Amino acid sequence: MIGPQRQWLADYSWDFVTAQNAVLCAAKNALHKPTSDGHDATKALWESHYQDSMGLDDAVDLCRRCHRLAPFCVYNGNTFTAIIRDVVINLNLKSDQNQIVRSLAGHIVAGVASDEETRAFREFCASLG
Fold it and tell me: What is the 3-state secondary structure (H, E, C) of the chain?
C-alpha cells in the first residue's frame, strides 16, 4: 500500500461491474456473458475486497487481478480499466495530471504498463499522502 487508505472501489459493486461489461459489449455488439472458468472466482475476489480501505495502488492491482481472471467472455480489460479510470476522475486533479494518471492506471490494469509507468504511478500514489 502506498499513499492514503480509502474505500476507492466501494461504489462499484459486482452488479456495477457486470453492468459496465454489458454496456461495453452492447456498444460493440459483442457477447455479454460470464465465463465458466473465471466468473465465480473473480466475483468472489471482488466482493471480498472492493469495499476495503486500501491504497490507490492496491485498488489498481485488484482491478488488474480481476481482469486477468477473465470473468466475462469479452472486454475484461476494458471493464476494469473503465472502473479505475472513473476512480481517478473523481480525484479532481488538474486536467493534464488527470489524463496522465488515468492512462498510467489503465495501463497497469490492462497489464501493458512499463516499469517506468508503474514507478511513476506509485510515486503519484505516494504523493496523495
Answer: CCCCCECCCCCCCHHHHHHHHHHHHHHCCCCCCECCCCHHHHHHHHHHHCCCCECHHHHHHHHHHHHHHCCECCCHHHHHHHHHHHHHHCCCCCHHHHHHHHHHHHHHHHCCCCHHHHHHHHHHHHHCC
Q: Is 18 exposed, middle or buried (0-12, 13-18, 19+ CB in 10 A)?
A: middle
Q: Let me know if residue 7 belongs to a domain.
A: no
Q: Kindly report whether the global pTM for this prediction surpasses the value 0.70.
A: yes
Q: Is residue 65 predicted with pLDDT exceeding 80? A: yes
Within a domain: 8: no
Residue 40 lies in domain: 14-127
Q: What is the mean pLDDT of residues 86-95?
A: 93
Q: How many domains does the chain have?
A: 1
CA distance 54 to 38: 24
Establish if 1 belongs to a structural domain: no
User: The domain spanning residue 70 has which CATH number?
Assistant: 1.20.120
**Grid coordinates representing 35?**
465465463
